[in-house]
């Protein structure tokens, strides 16, 4: 009786290799085609934008609100903000902490560089941080600073030999200025000429005990990332004896795997019972975020989302649109800002709660980058943010469910094609 011989080992190995190759090809196709399309769309959009200027847009004058022993001033126009920031730097007596994701080497950028240099020249301690990747296109000449300035360029590649550690790939997306112990600025504005007049953004100026939390945020980042730069000297701060409970700083720190901003948003949305007014430059949420907004609308909350009609990142626009159908179907109202880039990252809920900060509602900000948002639990601040939102709506067009459902087939196909990129942006 003959026995059947087993298949040769090499055949089984070849079969496994074949399956592995097919899987790799399928994976490459699944992500490669959307990525290629995204790159082409970005290049075409960049070409179309050349020489085009945004249209004028309505803004509110800086508005002041008293909170405890301090105050909060809200800015919606870059020129107003930059004027107050430069005045604060000029009046500094002891210390300046300056941090910006983008620091352009243009007229506005030069003004800030000159103001910081002059402050250091008169004996003020000046610390500055900017993100190396975000400023790759800035001329190297601009990045040469005097010896009296302590400057940290957050490196383009910060993982070193720990290339496998995803905690080390986050960008420094924060925008902070703290002068002495008396005033701090934080929000969405980068530093550059275009942002002064062409972008609609939101920033706040804080005085009182809330300034201490901004100082700590800057110092913690400096000490975590200084390495051997600047002589390896840590930035030491005194400890505040009190704080303002209605103003809370939330910091995403990928190196320490700390991401409280997403939780802050979800908790506030889940507690909403009247209205949610949210402005986002790049809205590419995860499923939990979408479900929270839909659930709020389902229980009768007036949920309004303001996004750019066309942002400076065309791929982010298309990815964002992939969520519009289910949001509109649940009762969420979507408004698209016209003629200019709205770069604000803000929300206000139920006339009690508000936030202003640097974090977008996308994966890069929620679970990737270094970010900072201020949470305000104060009715006057909420009223101020509602006024800002109302002004922005005068320059926005509401997207109806009927209009969205009747969009072209090519648009639906593009949204579907780009969908695999959502978890990465």
How would the blueprint of this fold be written?
Layout: H1 9-49, E1 63-67, E2 70-75, H2 78-90, E3 95-100, H3 107-121, E4 125-131, E5 149-154, E6 175-179, E7 183-187, H4 193-197, E8 199-200, E9 203-207, H5 210-225, E10 247-252, H6 260-271, E11 275-280, H7 287-298, E12 302-308, H8 314-321, H9 324-330, E13 333-337, E14 341-342, E15 345-349, E16 353-357, H10 363-367, E17 371-377, H11 379-393, E18 396-399, H12 401-405, H13 409-418
Parallel strand pairs: 3-4, 4-5, 8-14, 11-12, 12-13
Antiparallel strand pairs: 1-2, 2-9, 3-6, 6-7, 7-9, 10-17, 11-15, 13-18, 15-16, 16-17
Task: Examine the secondary-structure arrangement and name the CATH architecture of the largest domain.
Answer: 2-Layer Sandwich
Number of domains: 2
Mean of all residue-level pLDDT scores: 87
Global structural class = alpha/beta
Name of the CATH first level of the largest domain: Alpha Beta
Q: Please state the overall shape, judged from the principal axes of the Cα atoms.
A: globular
Radius of gyration: 24 Å
Content of β-strand? 15-25%
Q: Helical amount among residues, as a percent range?
A: 25-40%
CATH third-level topology of the largest domain: Endonuclease, Chain A
End-to-end span in angstroms? 64 Å
Q: Which blocks of ≥5 consecutive residues have pLDDT under 50?
A: none
**Sheet having the most strands:** 8 strands, mixed
Number of helices: 13
Strand line-up in the sheet with most strands? 1-2-9-7-6-3-4-5
CATH homologous superfamily assignment of the largest domain: Endonuclease Chain A
Total strand segments: 18
């Amino acid at each position: 009786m003959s026995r059947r011989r087993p298949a040769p080992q090499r055949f089984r190995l070849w079969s496994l290799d074949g399956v592995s190759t097919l899987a790799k090809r399928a994976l490459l196709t699944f992500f490669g085609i959307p990525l290629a399309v995204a790159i082409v769309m970005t290049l075409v959009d960049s070409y179309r934008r050349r020489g085009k200027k945004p249209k004028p847009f309505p803004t509110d004058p800086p508005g002041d609100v008293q909170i405890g022993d301090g105050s909060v001033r809200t800015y919606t126009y870059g020129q107003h903000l930059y004027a107050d920031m430069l005045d604060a730097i000029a009046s500094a007596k002891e210390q300046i902490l300056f941090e910006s994701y983008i620091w352009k080497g243009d007229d506005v950028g030069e003004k800030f560089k000159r103001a910081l240099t002059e402050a250091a020249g008169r004996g003020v301690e000046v610390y500055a941080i900017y993100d190396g990747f975000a400023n790759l296109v800035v001329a190297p000449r601009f990045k040469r600073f005097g010896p009296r300035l302590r400057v940290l360029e957050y490196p383009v590649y910060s993982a070193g030999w720990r290339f496998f550690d995803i905690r080390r790939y986050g960008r420094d997306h924060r925008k902070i200025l703290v002068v002495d112990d008396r005033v701090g600025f934080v929000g969405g504005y980068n530093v550059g000429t275009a942002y002064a007049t062409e972008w609609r953004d939101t920033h706040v100026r804080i005085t009182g005990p809330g300034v201490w939390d901004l100082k700590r945020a800057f110092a913690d980042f400096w000490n975590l990332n200084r390495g051997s730069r600047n002589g390896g000297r840590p930035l030491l701060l005194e400890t505040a004896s009190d704080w303002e409970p209605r103003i809370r700083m939330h910091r995403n720190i990928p190196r320490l795997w700390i991401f409280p901003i997403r939780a802050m948003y979800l908790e506030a949305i889940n507690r909403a019972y009247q209205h949610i007014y949210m402005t986002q430059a790049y809205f590419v949420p995860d499923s939990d975020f979408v479900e929270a907004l839909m659930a709020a609308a389902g229980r009768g909350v007036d949920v309004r989302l303001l996004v750019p009609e066309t942002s400076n990142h065309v791929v982010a626009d298309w990815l964002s649109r992939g969520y519009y159908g289910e949001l509109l179907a649940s009762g969420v109202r979507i408004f698209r800002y016209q003629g200019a880039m709205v770069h604000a990252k803000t929300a206000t809920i139920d006339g009690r709660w508000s936030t202003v900060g640097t974090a977008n509602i996308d994966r890069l900000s929620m679970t990737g980058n270094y970010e900072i948002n201020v949470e305000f639990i104060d009715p006057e601040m909420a009223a101020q943010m509602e006024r800002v939102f109302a002004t922005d709506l005068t320059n926005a067009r509401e997207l109806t469910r009927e209009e969205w459902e009747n969009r072209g087939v090519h648009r639906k196909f593009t949204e579907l094609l780009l969908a695999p990129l959502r978890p990465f942006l």
